[in-house]
């Protein structure tokens, strides 16, 4: 009876290729298969770019996985099943698969759902996650801003158009990191202005990567379009 390979969720940091752990480095070199998020429209994801600095793709099975950007349940189920099946094809042959993900595999990562569905469909597959440095921590370093000290509380909040939920998040934490802030930037700025905190917010795009951009005063971005990989840090 063959033994299934191990599925590793490997966090490789927020963008700077040097922000990869020794363990992550070892695993992507040891695993027979390296899976990575693949862009539909071509071009390489951060994770793909970073991993290619540390391995020779010609010596690995490189498995590009496309993750559906939709809320249609039927499409989601179909595409996710395809993703799991692609990984299972290698795992069922006893090959270890390192799925590399930006940031940390257990913090707003595609690996979370991949691992959940793999456990459901193929419970015999061992699953291991390897922590990585998240964009939240990268932002704190870039801004030279402590996220929390002593008894202070920090919230990591997906930014939405729920105005009252965003207000409560700000009220209930000393520091708030709004991720995926691009689509609702002006709304968040309005809420901050109402709370007289407009000058306490900064925005970072593509943190720690070669394309990083920092705006110490988020108010200067009102009305502008931001990259998807943008976050806001509010420090009260």
Your description of this structure?
The protein has helices at residues 22-30, 46-51, 73-91, 110-121, 135-143, 163-171, 185-194, and strands at 7-11, 33-37, 61-65, 97-101, 127-130, 154-158, 175-179, 201-205, 213-215, 230-235. It has 236 residues and is of the alpha/beta class. The strands form two sheets. The chain has a five-stranded parallel sheet with strand order 3-2-4-1-5, with helices on both faces. The chain has a five-stranded mixed sheet with strand order 6-7-10-8-9, sandwiched between helices. Helix 6 (163-171) links the parallel strand 6 and strand 7 (175-179). Helix 3 (73-91) packs across helix 4 and helix 6 crosses helix 7.
Which helices and strands, and how do they pair?
Blueprint: E1 7-11, H1 22-30, E2 33-37, H2 46-51, E3 61-65, H3 73-91, E4 97-101, H4 110-121, E5 127-130, H5 135-143, E6 154-158, H6 163-171, E7 175-179, H7 185-194, E8 201-205, E9 213-215, E10 230-235
Parallel strand pairs: 1-4, 1-5, 2-3, 2-4, 6-7
Antiparallel strand pairs: 7-10, 8-9, 8-10
